[in-house]
Amino acid sequence: MSNGGSLLPIIAMLPFLGALVPGLMIRAGRTACATFTAAPTILALIMLAVIAPDVFAGEVLKAEIVWLPGLGLSFSFFLDGLGLLFAGMILGVGLLITLYARYYLSGEDPMGQFYTYLLLFQGAMLGIVISDNILLLLIFWELTSLSSFLLIGYWKHLPEGRQGARMALAVTGAGGLAMIAGMLILGQIVGSYNLTDILAQGEVIRASEWYLPALILILLGAFTKSAQFPFHFWLPHAMAAPTPVSAYLHSATMVKAGVFLLARMWPVLSGTDAWFYIVSTTGLVTMVLGALIALFKDDLKALLAFSTVSHLGLLTMLLGFGTKAAAIAAVFHIINHLTFKAALFMTAGIVDHETHTRDIKRLGGLAKFMPVTALIGTLAALSMAGIPFFNGFLSKEMMLEEASHTYWLDNDWIVPALATLGALLSVAYSLRFIFHVFAGPARDDYPSHPHDPPFGMYAAPALLVVFVMLIGVMPWLAEPLVTVAADAVTGTHTHPHLKIWHGVTPALFMSIIAVLGGAVLLAVHRPLDKTWQTAPRPEAKVIFDWLISVFAGFSKRLTEAVHTGAISRYLAIFVVATVALGYIAYADGTLGPPTRELLPIPPVAAIGWLLLIAATGLLLVYHHNRFRALILIGVIGLMVSGGFVYLSAPDLALTQISVETVTIMLLLLALYFMPNTTPRESGAGLRLRDGLIALSAGGGVAALAMVFLMRDFSSISGFHLANSYKGGGGTNVVNVILVDFRGYDTYGEIIVLGIAGLTIFALMESLLNGPASRRLRNRDYSQDRSRDRHPLMMVVATRAMLPIAVMVGIYIFLRGHNQPGGGFVAGLVISIALLMQYMASGFAWTQGRQRIEYHLMIGWGVVIAGLTGAGAWLAGKPFLTSAYGYIHWPPIEEFEWATAMAFDLGVFLTVLGAVMLMLYSLSRIARYAGETVNLEPMDYDPSLKRNLKKPEAE
Amino acid sequence: MELVVASSVGVLTAGGVYLILRLRAFPVILGLALLSYAVNVFLFATGRLAINAPPVLNKYADVAYSDPLPQALVLTAIVISFGMTAVLVMVALGAYLEADHDRIDMTGNEEAEAAEKESGS
Fold this sequence. Notes:
- The structure holds 2 protein chains of 2 kinds.
- By secondary structure, chain A is an all-alpha fold.
- Among the domains of chain A are: 270-536, no CATH class; 538-582; 605-678; 733-782 and 789-938, no CATH class.
- In chain A, helix 1 (7-18) packs antiparallel against helix 5 (111-130), helix 27 (603-622) packs antiparallel against helix 28 and helix 36 packs parallel to helix 39 (899-928).
- Chain B has a single domain (2-119), classed as Orthogonal Bundle (Helix Hairpins), CATH 1.10.287.
């Protein structure tokens, strides 16, 4: 293997990186934008050209970047002949489309967006054809559906564009889902998701009992993408897209993805009866049906769309035959179809652009006004018709040749006859494209005066037509490419001989019948068209819309039945389901005997327990009175803290009791605005139901707790106990775990806390600026006011307490590493001390003395903690590795320093800032609600004083 | 003692679940507070119970310690649950001020009408 493979991931990445370019370059003008959009494509083409000789030499280039090896998913790419053919087509046509779109799009269209979508699509498509991993292939496959959705719906103001985009996404997306299932089955059969492995295991797959489901699912994906009957209907509706999109997606790339997949999987899946009957029959039906509808379409692009459907059917049928010669013909026709169909789409776009109509009945005689366009269109259409000396003729002959000796259920004439019919119809609509648009008498009622477009616009189709002619006259030019691609499809060595004259064969007669018949059909088109237009026929869009509305109605009913908006119901279901799952787990498992002794219950603990149970019970009874409920919650919190003290968790007890205090303050503040009673709404039945649910949940949890409390276990805590002092330099293991062993967790947690504080601040801001502020202002608070809002005793006491409380906080902070305490508790203690000032001396007075914004405190806290952690990098250690040492400071004794202390400082600041910001935000609402502002710390009811201050307008 | 802890957790859970099934925001917040007590004690108890054995290393004697890891986890959980309670309170308060009622269910029009009537009376 040469090292050319290493270019593959770069080639795959280039369009995606390039997709960023147009958005930046669009400001520099449309031409600059188009030029820079072309750059990544050109670069990728050059790289492809560099490695192409290796592929022509028969090598398969590979590259792999491991992504999720556990899932069998990796960024692996490979390039064989088939991949090379498609990659070349995708990039080459992509380049031409970039050029064409520059002239096609009008100044009002957002061109940068268009190019971004185009490159995204190009990247997705390129990914499909060079992926070596089928999971990766699926990702790219879905990406093509998504990016083509964006492209088809590019003209967002057109309802057809939006509907067409939705329909395309629904159909190809649904097919993609089926394909995922099929691919997963394939991967399971083979035991690998690597395409190269799968391709080598054809025998095994075909013999597997899962072959048929996998085949059908994958074919669903391929058929929907390649618009095969009965999924063909999305393609004509996708024609609402700008013409460059149609020319790119619907001639060369997206719709060929399905054909590509059939070709890629050909060595694995083909060769069985199921493959032959499903694939070739679908292809045959699609070919004839598409051609028939195309003949009677008046919209130029619709004609081309159905002709594309028909040609895709032809390709599918050829691949379905399962013979080598048919596969060669398919590969050759892929190239030919690309050249003439892209040229035709672009021609149609030019006609539309210049005459402002695509209705064939309003056109005709254009050759006189736009000779160059007419020439390009005519040559391309002749190729589509399969006239000798054009490339379409060559592959059509090969197709007819293959069809002529294909038996369908032992019937030897039906396939050749239908193939000839398809070819005949194809001649008819191709000639119609020429004669009804370009030929005929010149008219004077075109919506716009037609003339040839600038060179840049017809350069792309002209170049393609040159290829049409070159291959048509000198077919051996295409031979090497067809050979490598066909080798890759069939997995063997093929020796295609592409030539114009095969001698007098059945195919020749079929061809002659087709051309003559097609000409006759065109001659009688007018009466036939009348009959066709009046004949009733099923309209695919109506059926599709009906199906979609049925599904949408079903999901709406289902959603409404399940998702009623009753949160209490969801919660009830959730609790019941959780309890049931727990019970199932318990019933299925086995439980060893208890290994621990029960600890004794001292009287103090018994009293605490009784208090806790009683408080909880009373809370349930009296929760309608919200103030009473708060007191009871306080009792419960105290008992829990007491329990922590008794059960050897001093840190928890400290934290719990301080959090308890802040929580009660918070709820009190909230109750100032909310109603202070809860109305009795639920009936006895509902209460009984909720009670039963609650009892089952509580019983379950209690039993679970009891079960594990009685049994020993092994944990990793021994490590923490052993290393706390040696590694972390602290004797309070809980604190060392927080700031050292699991510092990352703590770091995340203080960030969450900071975000919670900021969220509350933001909510408050939006609340005060919203309609609720009016309601707040109009509320009557006069009954709530105490005459003595800031009592003298309290003010004096809290002032005296503040320095003491701060000292306690600092003490708790400093001892944290070795004794119970630390940043969390210290932050809470100091915030309580500060909150006391707000309560005692009033909001405005306290606010006036605040020096540091709480937001800043949160920010600095996180920054300090982060920097401390990052400091470890300087010592070459991982993030948050701590260091510590001892200093002997003569007057004081041994003094320990630890970087963990700085980290804890960050924790402290964040906790303090967040808690203060939360409560500050809530109390600000009060000020906004019309509460008068005090400037003196001790004031009486301001309404009784003369020099009262009105709230400042905010 | 194990029975005391287990039954406390159970009672707190039952109370919490009962309260979160109420129809108003305030009891639901109280219920969540009870549930967070229950969860914190439950998590703490996974380290098993020990008396007079705080996980503070003793330099002078070889003594038993309680499990520090659940304690560290619960410590941050207590603080975080305070933060979450505060956010919830703020959301409930905002909802109450905007809608003029603190029902938590959003089942349709008849609810809103009932609320209108209630605020009007």
